[in-house]
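User: My collaborator and I are trying to settle a disagreement about how two of our proteins should look. Neither of us wants to argue from intuition anymore, so we agreed to look at predicted structures for both before our next call. Could you fold the first one, then the second, and keep them clearly separated?

Assistant: That sounds like a sensible way to settle it. I'll keep them separate. The first protein:
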Amino acid sequence: MTKEKAKRIMEALALEYPEAKAELNFSNPFETLIATILSAQCTDKRVNMVTEKLFRDYPDAKTMAALSQEELEDKIRECGLYRMKAKHILEACRALNEEHGGNVPSDRKALMKLPGVGQKTAGVVLMAAFGSDQIPVDTHVFRLSNRIGLVKADTPEKTEEGLRDLIEEGTRAHAHHLLIWHGRRCCSARKPECERCPLNDGLCEKNL
């Protein structure tokens, strides 16, 4: 894949999805971190339903860390994997309080030292909360990048590395949202709607 073809792909997706943006609701770095942890294997719509009350009652690391494991599990149960997520969230909140004054760090290495925070979550926080031009690789970005031929990689980490080399600096965060919107609205995992895809005129390699 050439950089010029990748640019044409993103231009086509931008025309198709002019309003592409994050669909999780958050208003600060702490909310971004918690919402992103909760979003694993869960729809943004359901996460938003849960976090509306969660963030109102527990707006920061100090108040959320005061919850017991069982209390937090009950409040996030609808997000799935709630036991593991509750454990990671509570441990991350304690680490924020003890090591960062309750604030979410804006450094990738520091973020990835937090429990439950891997490369994708760190990238989302850096991008969404701090305006960094990242291209985090979730399930949609991983699937589409390899399916349409942007990269050929067998892990999300290698996919992200390939996309950083391919996608023009300053446009990577937007590309992240475009790929997610396309994955949710057209190029689904099991039944991609190729007949109406804006990339079916030679831009997609269709590695199905």
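The second protein, kept apart from the first:
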Amino acid sequence: MSAKTQRVLITGSASGLGRAMALRFASEGARVAVADVNDERAAETADEIVAAGGKALVIHCDITSDTSVNETVAAVKKAWRGLDVLVNNAGVAAAGTVTDTSMEDWSWMIDTNLLGAVRMCRAFLPMMQKQRSGYVINVASAAGIVQSPGMASYNVAKAGMIALSETLRNEVRRFGIGVTVVCPSFFATNLMESYRGPKSGVREMADKLMQRSRLDADDVADAVYRAMEKDELFVFAHNEARLAYHFKRLMPGVFYWSTERAAQKMFGDIVELEPTPRKRHG
């Protein structure tokens, strides 16, 4: 599809990767809806979109609210009468093991990082199906492939985003709708502003890995745009995420052995998990 005529909505586009993707689409002349709960930052992104040669539409959108999502659909229909690209990017960060993460935080994570995308897909896909065209980009994470200890709820939500994307691709292909799922590793962003969990340990390590990344949000946004143009299901951006994906599929036994050792070495002084002897079967 031609980027020149695209109508694009990106959740969580007031900052970080969302803003970078908004500007990437805008550089191609697209009309971009900046959907976010932070109105001030959304307005700043809109100004940058216009400066980059695009057209901006600011929409206050809370992806955890059915009412807010429905209002977002109404705003898009009124302004554009349709949508070409939906980018489910909004998300939050958290750390904690399966057992020490509160049910409140589990619900918060799943509702935002997974069900938020489900709400947006349910709201906008009928529009795309009627058009017989469209594209959905879901932002997951390498955490959805390599599940390190101490990031339980985040891992589960991002793995769910991958499963959602694979399922969705099989369901909507016949309507001329494409799907891409983004699985980046660590890169500098403001995701940790929403962080819930231990004050040290996992958060400190995540901050360090973000700062060490050779890629930034603009690099990831460019990789996402190229993947959409090629109609690729997965986009990894980081080589380590791509290697992990193929390693896990081709050599699962070795993958789990190596990642278990690496994860326990990395998180051993952060996550207190008492090892239990493994029983032999048979």
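Some points you might bring to the call about the second protein. DSSP finds ten helices and seven strands in the chain. The radius of gyration is 19 Å.
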